[in-house]
Amino acid sequence: MNKQGKHIALISLHGLIRGNNPELGRDEDTGGQIRYVLELARSLGEDERVSRVDLITRQIVDDRVSKDYAQLEEQIGENAFIVRIPFGPKRYLGKTKLWPYMEVFVDQCLLYFQRMRTTPDLIHGHYADAGYGGGQLARLFGVPFVFTGHSLGRVKLQRLLESGVSQDKIEARYNISRRIEAEEFALETCSLICTSTHQEVHQQYELYHNYVPERMEVIPPGVDLSAFRPPSPDDEGSQLEKDINSFLHEPEKPVIVTMARPDERKNLEMLVRTYGESPQLQRHANLVLILGSRDDIRQMPSGQKNVLTNILTLIDVYDLYGKVAYPKKHEPMEVPALYRMITRLKGVFINPAMTEPFGLTLLEAAASGVPIIATNDGGPRDIIANCKNGLLIDPFDSKAIEKALMHALIEPQQWEEWSRAGLENVNIHYSWKRHTERYLRDVEELLQAPDAAPDVEKGRKTRKLPQIDRLVIADIDNTLTGDDTAMNDFFRLINEADDNVGFGIATGRRYADVVQLIADYHIPQPEVLITSVGTEIYYGKNFTLDTSWNKHIDFRWEPDKIREILDPVEGVYFQGENEQSTYKVSYEVDFSKSPKLPAIRKLLRENDVRAKVIVSLNMFLDIIPCRAGSGLSIRHMAYKWGFPLEHILIAGDSGNDEEMLAGNTLGVVVGNYSPELEKLRKYPRVYFAEAHHAAGIIEGIHYYDFLNTITIPNEKTLASDG
Fold first, then answer.
1. How far apart are CA 282 and CA 681, in angstroms?
2. pLDDT tens per residue across span 390-414
3. Which of 211, 496, 584, 670 is most buried per CB count within 10 Å?
C-alpha cells in the first residue's frame, strides 16, 4: 500500500453492492451505477497515486438477500474496499425510502472514520442520496467533493409530468422534492461534477439553480475489457445461450438483443411491437429479450409486472412464438458470452430506451464486436460518435427502429465495418485506464488548489476536526470580549497552539450576529460554532450546519404556542425579530413585574409545552426545545466527533453558560461572572478564575495544563498529548 497516495471515498448508498458476482438487474436500484462504482473503485485502487479507495454503501441484514451485504468490510481489489455503514432499518430498502435516515448515515460515517483514525482526501458522491450525505461529510471534513448524479430528479419530474402523472403521485412514489433538494445541495457543495456525456451537461444539469458550467467535466467511464471480447473458436456455450435457443425454432439465425429490466422507460414494448409488425425483421433475425431475473411475475413490483405482462401479451398477439426468447434468469457472469453469441451470429444489440443517461451495455457490446442501435436521447450520442459502430434512432418512431435494424442485418459489409470500428474505438475512448488517468488528473488539480490560507491578522488556519483531540470553547460576550488586550493574548495563545488543539465558540447570540462579531473582533476562525443557546451547531471553515442536531431537537417544539402563552404575561417582553431564531424564542424580563421563574416554567408546563427556560443576567429569558441547550449541544458534538468530555475546556460568565459548564467537561468561570453561576463553585471540574474576561480563559488553560498534559488538581492525569 502506497502510504503517500490519495485516500478516496466513493459513496453509493442504494442497491445491492458486492465485489463477487454482483446481482445486476435484480431490481431497479441494482444496475449500471453499481457496476460503475465497483469498477471505478478497482481501477483507482490499482493506480500508484492512490493509497486506498473506500466504496461506502449501506449495511443490509435481511434474510431476503445474501449475507454478503451484512459484511462490514470487503476487499474488492488492490487497495480497494467496500465499507458498509449501518444506518436506518437493517432490512433492504429501495432508494426512495432512505431519505429519513440520511443524517444518521452522516453521523455513522463520522464514527467510522474516527475509528479508522483517518479521513479521506476527497469524497465522490454517486446519485442524489450520496450527493447529500457525501456533501455533508466533505463540508465537515473540509475536503473537496465530487458529484455524479447518474440520473437527475428534475429530468425525471419533467418527463413524468409530461406523461400525465400528477405532481402528488410523483411525490408520493418518488419523494422527488427531497431528491431535487439533495441534488441542489450537492451541486452547491461540489468542486467538480463528473459526468459521462455532453448531453447530461447541456440538457440535464442546466435545469438546476446551482449549475456552474466551469465545474463540469465529461469523463466517460470504462469497460472491463478483460471480460468483454470477440468470440473465439474455443468458446464454450453458456447455460444462458441454451436457454435462449430453447425458445427458438431457428436458433442459427442472427439475433436482435436488448438487455434491460422491465421498466416502461426502457421502451421494450415499442421494440416488441416493431418486431411484431415487421415481416422483414422476423425473416432475418430472432428477437432476444434479457429482462433481468424473475421468480414469479405475480410477485414482481407492479411497474415491472405490467411491462412484462404487456410484452408477453404482444408476443401472443403477433404470434411470435419460436421467434422471441425471454429467458427467466441469467447470471451476470454469462453476459460476456451473450455478447459473443450475438457477434458469432452476426446479430445486433439495441437500446431503445426513451432516454439513456449513459449506456454501459452499449460499450460492453462494442468491446465484443457487436454493432449497436441506440436511442438518440442521452449517452448513446457520445458513444456512437466515438465508436462509430452503429446508428441512433428516435425511440418513438417504429419505422425508424425497423430501418436501422435492417440496415445492420442485411448489409454484411456495413456490419463488419461497425464491428471492427467498435472494437478499435472502445479501447481508445472507454478503457478504465484512460478514465482513471483523466479522473486523477482532475482530482490532483482539486487537491492542489490552495486551501484557505491563514489570515495575516488572525494568524491561524482552521484545523480539521478529525485531526484535533481537544477543544477550547468560549462564550463571546464578557468572556472573550471586555478586555481587548487579554482577548488578543488569548487569540495569540490559540494561534500558536499545536494543530491538535481546536477552538470553538458557544453563545446565546444568533448565527448571523456571531459571524459579524467574528469579523469585527478579528476572532480566529473556530472549528465549532454553537449559537442561539445551544440550538444550532456549525462546523469547519464553511460553518456547516449540523442538521442531525436540528432534527433531534425539533421534537415537540411549538414556538407559536409559546408566544401565545407568554406574550400576554406582564413583565415579559418579546424581543425584536433579530433576536429570534428557529429554535429560540427570546424575551426580556422584569422580575419585579413578572411571575418568578418557577411560575413561568409551570405556566408552560400546564399548557402542555415541553421546553427549557433559561435566564441570563437576570433580565434575558430564552425558551428553547426540551432536547436543546448549550450542555447537550456540547455532548452531541463530542459524541459526533469522538472527543472525550475531559478534552473539552468550556469558558463562560453567565446563566446561559451554566449547562455547558456543569458536566464532565473542564469548566472555567471567568472572574467577571454573574451571580447565577455561584452555585457551580462546588463542582470539581469547574474552576473559578481570578482574572476577568479572556484573561480568565488563559488562567483556566494554565490551571488544567490544557495545551500539554491535561490534568485536574487532586485528580490523576487524564490524558497525554503523546
1. 92
2. 999 999 999 999 999 999 999 999 9
3. 670
